[in-house]
Design brief:
The protein has helices at about 1-15, 25-35, 80-90, 135-140, 150-155, 170-180, 250-260, and strands at about 50, 55, 65-70, 70-75, 210, 270, 275. Helix 7 links the parallel strand 5 (about 210) and strand 6. The strands form three sheets. It has a three-stranded antiparallel β-sheet, with no helix packed on it. The protein is globular. By secondary structure, it is α+β, with helices and mostly antiparallel strands. Helix 1 runs parallel beside helix 7 (about 250-260).
Length: about 280
């Protein structure tokens, strides 16, 4: 097990170090592209939203300063195949044959039989995958919601079934690694496992999930000053600014996020939606 952890740690750091330089301008590009999308037709997915009481937490990457997460609402489970199918039917510009390449790569909705038919082996109640950040963001907007921020997602991800913050437990990271290593987990139905402390399902056991600011972390020397040198470019250098160098599951998540671009689609990457609390009173 120790050897596996060392390998995962190496891989996670490796991905961080060799992150693409175009991440610096990705925010501008995504904003420009999103502005080209017309207003989405409203959808009403039948999913319970859990009220998350916020608080201060220590991000996995940063300067050791606590970050304040405000109270918010989070879908209790990931968006399903059936729900995304309903979305594309009502918003044809997000169908596979209509979507622009700037919004999704050529594996978008891979294996769908046609624009309005799920893959033959797909369960309608399994999480949607092969969707880009743009498509996920458009779906959330159509549902009157948004994507969770990275801090919101990670704040909820600290919980296990018994406590809001399980990161100090020796078994926490190892348990998540075991879940990440399961093959084809994205094909399972949602809500088949136990919910966490907040009542949120499937944070780890089905798919990786898009966050609104998925590419906001850079760990090559000091990105704030744009000063880069060889000292920051070596294997495991990403660990120098990590809050817990033994939290291998978090290294895997952040490494995976750092490898993404907004138009990428991946076989085991899905999403869930969030919402500001004050919006519920409008």
């Amino acid at each position: 097990m120790a050897k596996i952890f060392k390998t995962l740690f190496f891989l996670g750091s490796f991905f961080f170090v060799f992150m693409s330089c175009d991440k610096v301008v990705s925010k501008t590009l995504t904003e420009d592209a999103t502005s080209d999308v017309a207003k989405e037709v409203r959808i009403t997915p039948d999913v319970k939203m859990i009220q998350i009481k916020g608080g201060d937490y220590l991000p996995f990457y940063g300067d050791s300063s606590l970050v304040k997460v405000q109270d918010f609402l989070l879908d209790e489970r990931p968006v399903t195949n059936a729900e995304f199918l309903d979305f594309v039917k009502k918003n044809p510009k997000w169908k596979r044959s209509n979507i622009k390449t700037i919004f999704a790569d050529d594996t978008y909705l891979k294996n769908w039989q046609d624009d309005e038919t799920l893959p033959k082996d797909a369960d309608p109640n399994s999480p949607i995958t092969f969707v880009s950040w743009f498509a996920a963001k458009a779906y959330a907007k159509s549902a009157g919601k948004r994507l969770p921020t990275l801090d919101e997602w990670e704040f909820v991800a600290m919980a296990d079934e018994e406590s809001a913050n399980a990161r100090d437990k020796a078994t926490y990271s190892a348990h998540l690694i075991n879940l990440y290593n399961k093959k084809y987990r994205e094909k399972n139905k949602v809500q088949q496992s136990k919910p966490n402390y907040y009542g949120v399902y499937n944070m780890f056991d089905l798919v990786w999930e898009w966050t609104d600011d998925f590419n906001s972390i850079m760990t090559t020397s000091d990105s704030r000053t744009a000063e880069f040198d060889d000292k920051g470019l070596f294997c495991a250098s990403a660990a120098t600014s990590a809050a817990d160098v033994l939290n291998y599951a978090s290294f895997m998540r952040y490494a995976f996020r750092s490898s993404l671009k907004a138009n990428y689609t991946v076989e085991n990457l899905g999403f869930r939606c969030a919402k500001d609390l004050q919006e519920t009173s409008k």
